[in-house]
Amino acid sequence: MSTGSPSERRLRKELMSLITTPTPGIRLDSDSISKNINEWIVEIDAAKGSLYEGQTFQLKFKFNDRYPFDSPSVTFIGQEIPEHSHIYSNGHICLSILSDDWTPALSVQTVCLSILSMLSSATKKERPPDDLIYTKTCSKDPKRTKWMYHDDTV
């Protein structure tokens, strides 16, 4: 019989899946997970042929007790925050599946793949147009941001 909350059971299931069938270019920091099942650090390798080829980035996932019905908080951390029109210099990511378009069918793996796809589709390295204002005024938790998707206005 499974023990723990539904959220914890789901996280353990995803963890086992990532360990037993790893996705190329996505690695878990098992030390971070062993300390706290609700906070994961995941390394992703940028795709070959992308503007970020050869670079490795770290993502921090924070899960609350309503996961998977509520999206995780996901940010880039570390020295390498990719310069991208949907990634702020503080590591916050403007990606609809992390807020309005989240569904419990998504997972850590699908979020990482979506972020890799977003990076791969970039045609130039640049920050969002409102990076300076956003990073000075935003909450530390990107889930508290009411995102305005600049692409939607085009």
General description of the model:
The chain has 154 residues and is of the alpha+beta class. The protein has a single domain (6-144), classed as Ubiquitin Conjugating Enzyme (Roll). Helix content is 27%, strand content 14%. A 4-stranded antiparallel sheet has the order 1-2-3-4. Keywords: Transferase, Ubl conjugation pathway. Its EC number is 2.3.2.23, 2.3.2.25. It is an enzyme of class 2 (transferase). It comes from Clunio marinus.
Provide a quick synopsis of the model.
With 154 residues, this protein is an alpha+beta fold. Helices cover 27% and strands 14% of the residues.
CATH homologous group name: Ubiquitin Conjugating Enzyme
| Level-2 CATH architecture | Roll
Q: What structural class do the secondary elements suggest?
A: alpha+beta
Question: Low-confidence parts lasting 5 or more residues at pLDDT below 50?
Answer: none
Features:
154 residues; alpha+beta; Ubiquitin Conjugating Enzyme; four-stranded antiparallel sheet; 4 helices; 27% helix; 14% strand
Q: Layout of SSEs?
A:
Elements: H1 6-20, E1 26-28, H2 30-35, E2 39-45, E3 56-62, E4 73-77, H3 108-120, H4 131-137
Antiparallel strand pairs: 1-2, 2-3, 3-4
EC number: 2.3.2.23, 2.3.2.25
Protein name: N-terminal E2 ubiquitin-conjugating enzyme
InterPro entries: Ub_conjugating_enzyme, UBC, UBQ-conjugating_enzyme/RWD
